[in-house]
Amino acid sequence: MDSMITAAARALAAGDLLGVLNRVALREDPPALALRGIAMARLGDFARAKALLQKAARGFGPREAVSRARCIVAEAEIALVSRDLGWPAKTLVSARTVLEQHGDRLNAAHARHLAVRRLLLIGQLDEAEQALSEIDASPFPPALQAAHALVIAGIAIRRLRTQIAHDAVAQAERAARQSGIDALIAEVESAAALLRTPAARLIARGETRLLLLEEVERLPATGALIVDACRNSVRSMAATVSLATRPVLFSLARALAEAWPGDLSRNVLVARSFRAREADESHRARLRVEIGRLRAELRDIAEIHATADGFAMRPRRGAEIVVLAPPVEERHAALLALLADGEAWSSSGLALALGTSSRSVQRALDALAVVGRVQFFGRGPARRWVTPPVPGFPTVLLLPASFPGS
Predict the structure, then answer these.
(1) Tens digits of per-residue pLDDT, 131-164?
(2) Would you tell me how many other CB atoms lie within 10 Å of the CB of residue 381?
(3) CATH says 3-195 is which class?
(4) CATH 1.10.10.10: does it fit domain 329-406?
(5) Which CATH architecture does the domain made up of 201-325 adopt?
(6) What pLDDT was estimated at residue 91?
(7) Are the CB atoms for 325 and 398 separated by under 8 Å?
(8) Domain range summary for the chain, segments of one domain joined by +
(9) DSSP string of 190-251, one letter each residue
(10) Which pLDDT tens digit goes with each residue over 270-286?
């Protein structure tokens, strides 16, 4: 490797992107192309960066497998940052294997972290934790230690393990400041702010208050029966009943929970759950059927009694009933929660993270674009969607994950 490439690599490690470009901007050899590609990626020109890295990978010869693998890892990082979650994960595994076989442990570890971060984004927490447990971060430089700690914090936040999340963020902050990389420091500060932002609303006995994430974590220990509007489930210390695929039943459960300790009239239940202005006999008959189904679903944790005017819910173990709701509730909230991370997402990446079809996501994006909630740039497969973060918007509890016991 010549002296100019060495100097450019050192400038890149120090975060001096202009120094990198000054040294290799006019060169077309594969090492220079790779360094330019990484620099352009850090400057936010992902399309140009991807093209440069692909050209560099093609330029490396058969004896330069490690250099080619490093280009693939860099391309995978661009795909992750640009939320192209459909990028072939097997290609990254192959590159990581090459790096491990040739003793490039740092770049191999970086490849592992990219795979874990992708799993975290699409809500596969068990797989992410398993992959992370195989990484020993102690010999890493500060920048990679910070990235490792951020992944630990991300998993802990989704798992509602707030003390672990606080400790990991503190560790990430120390490592990021040691690295001196401004972008990494900003990412850590964003994660820390997330822990200080209201994550949910608690509705109980007709009153509403905001909860931090750590308060949400402590809520099950109170013994309350929780009707969870973030995960569309009803849970107690004894059991969790998911109603994510039964929206009418969940709507009835939430309405009855908000009315507790009182009851709710049949007309109000019909209006809230069936969206009918007036309750006729057919609506009343359907209400009886759906209430029967809800009784069957909640039989182990709650009772539903008929009253003179309507119905009332009672917890089986004498605890109170509360509703856990996002700070802001609106249509397409889960989609907006993903976009609120400030990154530019592809529609296919959003569909993969939400576990739904690309067409459904595209319809939702089009509807949000009409009212100015989201914006896009690019065309065809290169189109990306963005939205500015909304203060107080739930960027945690609506993300793909499962609560403990669910």
Answers:
(1) 998 888 888 889 889 989 999 998 998 888 999 9
(2) 10
(3) mainly alpha
(4) yes
(5) Orthogonal Bundle (1.10)
(6) 92
(7) no
(8) 3-195, 201-325, 329-406
(9) HHHHHHTS--EEEEETTEEEEE-HHHHHHGGGGT-EEEETTTTEEE-SS-EEE-TT-HHHHH
(10) 888 887 667 678 888 89
